[in-house]
Design a protein that fits this description.
Blueprint (H helix, E strand, L loop, with lengths): L1 H35 L11 H17 L18 H22 L42 H6 L3 H11 L19 E6 L7 E6 L3 E6 L4 H7 L8 H6 L6 E5 L5 E6 L6 E6 L4 E5 L4 E6 L10 E6 L6 E6 L3 E6 L6 E5 L5 E6 L6 E6 L3 E11 L6 E9 L4 E6 L4 E6 L3 E6 L14 H4 L3 E4 L10
Antiparallel strand pairs: 1-2, 2-3, 3-4, 5-6, 6-7, 7-8, 9-10, 10-11, 11-12, 13-14, 14-15, 15-16, 17-18, 18-19, 19-20
Length: 455
């Protein structure tokens, strides 16, 4: 019985020892695989020190740049010390060296600050904290030249112009805060063309048209004041009367623009956001409607009005929806309408010498030249020929022709641009201008952001 027990115990013990041996062998093999893949410690006595020295440069590399990611050869199925593993290590080394070389390489071409910005708010070359260092043109409430600059000016015409401007004086007949021409905010302002008397007209937000005689002064008004029975001479002398101002409620909404007829000084044409054009006859003291949509429910605000200087009956107007219209005052409510922009047309102008050329300024940042002699398209959707266009960085608020064929524009990018078009009277109908011909001949930096209610 004793021999059988020892045999059974030795058989069990043998099986246990074999299991232990297989487990140790498996553990050793796993350790070797991990070591070859860089996952295990190099030696048992100093496991911590190599790990610390290897981690520090790895952290620095991640902060400096995005290097090729290191992958496990074991997970990828690549045997240790194989040719594939060697080529993989060489490729990784070459990629790291190339990235370091590119980083140190000098950049020879021009740099845009917006593209090389490292930190901070997005950079805008037109609006940043350095604009006061660079020249932006005229600043509000600061003179661009003084007496010394006038004396140093060598150009005779420029010097004469500067001397004339320096000699201008502000109107001192009344204090400015007492000359309230209209009850509400002014949207349009202008002088009557008659040279004998400085008559100022203004249109406001609520459709009122104000009239002010700038030839009067506080002294002249005081002499014209009729003394009442309750006033004695001493009270009359101390009284400081207000200026004589007259206003009329011609429209139900904003008077956006007005123009005096070049053929009749007593005729004043007004345009309004209430979708109508009216004629004010100063001689007859009456106002008549020239144009308005037949459907009174239509809302087609009018932004500008001009009269053909060669034809006393043709009236042009622009709308906030991008249309320009033409109507004949002899036949009310007959109109030709052209869609010249998909966005608001803030201002337009006829060439005084050749009025079939129109310049438009739009919210879509363009100034365009159109020729009305050449129309194309189906009836009811015709368009004049587009001669050319110039695009600004921001919206263009107005365009104005002069008789020499120049167009001046004002834009929200703080510039006043002058475009010169020579010999327009000799242009063929529908002439096509190149981009270079549409470029401005002069660009004047000017702060157009008034920050006030000035239109």
């Amino acid at each position: 019985m004793a021999k059988k027990e020892s045999t059974e115990i030795s058989e069990y013990e043998r099986q246990r020892l074999e299991n232990i041996a297989q487990r140790d062998k498996l553990l050793k093999q796993l350790a070797l695989d991990a070591s070859s893949a860089g996952l295990g410690p190099g030696s048992k006595p100093k496991p911590a020190k190599p790990a610390v020295t290897k981690k520090k440069p790895a952290v620095k590399k991640i902060k400096e740049e995005n290097l090729p990611r290191r992958t496990s050869s074991r997970i990828a199925g690549i045997e240790a010390d194989s040719e594939v593993a060697k080529r993989k290590a060489e490729d990784e080394y070459v990629a790291v060296q190339e990235a370091a070389r590119v980083k140190r390489q000098r950049i020879s071409g021009p740099l845009d600050l917006k593209e090389v910005q490292v930190a901070g708010k997005d950079w805008d070359k037109n609006e940043n904290f350095l604009v006061d260092v660079a020249s932006r043109g005229a600043n509000p409430y600061e003179r661009t030249f003084g007496d010394e600059e006038v004396k140093e000016t060598t150009d005779k015409e420029l010097r004469a112009l500067r001397e004339k401007m320096s000699g201008l004086e502000l109107y001192d007949g009344f204090e400015p805060n007492r000359i309230k021409i209209t009850p509400e905010r002014i949207y349009s302002l202008g002088f009557h063309p008659v040279a004998d008397k400085p008559l100022v007209f203004a249109g406001d937000k609520m459709g009122n048209l104000g009239l002010f005689d700038a030839s009067q002064s506080s002294t002249s008004v005081k002499h014209e004041t009729i003394k009442t029975e309750d006033q004695d001479e001493e009270e009359a002398e101390e009284d400081d009367p207000d200026p004589n101002i007259t206003s009329f409620h011609l429209h139900t909404r904003t008077i956006s623009s007005f123009q005096f007829s070049p053929h009749n000084a007593s005729h004043l044409y007004t345009s309004s956001y209430d979708s109508s054009l009216r004629l004010l006859d100063l001689t007859k003291s009456s106002s008549t409607e020239i144009y308005a949509p037949e459907d009174t429910s239509l809302d087609e605000p009018i932004s500008g009005v001009e009269m053909d200087p060669h034809s006393p009956h043709l009236l042009y107007f622009s709308r906030l929806d991008g249309h320009v219209g033409r109507t004949d005052t002899r036949t009310p409510n007959t109109v030709d309408v052209f869609q010249l922009s998909e966005k608001k047309i803030g201002g337009f102008s006829l060439n005084p010498s050749v009025p079939h050329f129109i310049a438009t300024a739009s919210l879509d940042r363009t100034m365009r030249i159109w020729d009305l002699r050449k129309l194309s398209g189906k009836k009811g959707a015709q368009l004049p020929a587009l001669c050319g266009e110039h695009t600004s960085r921001l919206s263009v608020s107005h365009a104005a022709f002069n008789s020499a064929g120049q167009v001046a524009t004002a834009s929200y990018d703080d510039t006043v641009k002058v475009h010169t078009f020579e010999a327009m009277s000799g242009w063929k109908a529908g002439r096509d201008l190149t981009e270079k011909q549409m470029d401005p001949s002069s660009i004047i930096r000017h702060n157009n952001q008034t920050g006030r209610w000035v239109t």
